[in-house]
Amino acid sequence: MRVISGTAKRKSISVPDEVARPSTDRLREALFSILQQLLADARVLDLFAGSGALSLESLSRGAKTATCVDAHRQATACIKKNIKSTGLAGAQVVQADVFRFLSTARHSEYELIFADPPYYKKSGDRNFANELLADENLPPLLADGGYFILEVPTQRPPLEPLAGWELVDERSYGACTILFFRWQSELAE
């Protein structure tokens, strides 16, 4: 894997073994082509960060800061290594359960929040995508006009977002779909 564009273009990114399911270069290139106008000085939150590829791509393309959150020690060690090898500034790594982080991350606002949770594969698995969309702690972290970008499997059970989330775009890339949400507080009332 590599950083696709920006100041760290072509720098290699390591992927933690058995922890992450990294977004493909094709998917990241398409995603960041859509987001390019929003990246200048953006504050980014990367949930279930894995290798940190989404944060690193954001920083390389002009984001001001990126906070990478992952519960796995192997993933956070890999992210720190990737930050060092790319030479990108503005990244913070938090080793924590994503939902515990959301419950304590007060007074922060992000223009872009990425989430690439483990996929729901069979009945009985945790549906992290639905848990995120139902978490009342997530919307207050999104800056006005910001986007919550959720990666999910193309074949998935129905999503059940809190009233207030508006799905503004959906793009499929093979087995993976990217959902773009905005928070509309007037819809939540």
UniProtKB/TrEMBL annotation:
Keyword Nucleotide-binding set for record: no
Principal EC category: transferase
Pfam families with a match to the protein in the record: Cons_hypoth95
EC number assigned by the record: 2.1.1.171
Superkingdom per UniProt: Bacteria
UniProt keyword Coiled coil, yes or no: no
Alphabetized GO MF terms: 16S rRNA (guanine(966)-N(2))-methyltransferase activity; nucleic acid binding
Keywords of this entry: Methyltransferase, Transferase
Record-linked Gene3D superfamilies: Vaccinia Virus protein VP39 (3.40.50.150)
NCBIfam families in alphabetical order: 16S rRNA (guanine(966)-N(2))-methyltransferase RsmD
Designated name of the protein: 16S rRNA (Guanine(966)-N(2))-methyltransferase RsmD
Organism: Persicirhabdus sediminis
Gene for this chain: rsmD
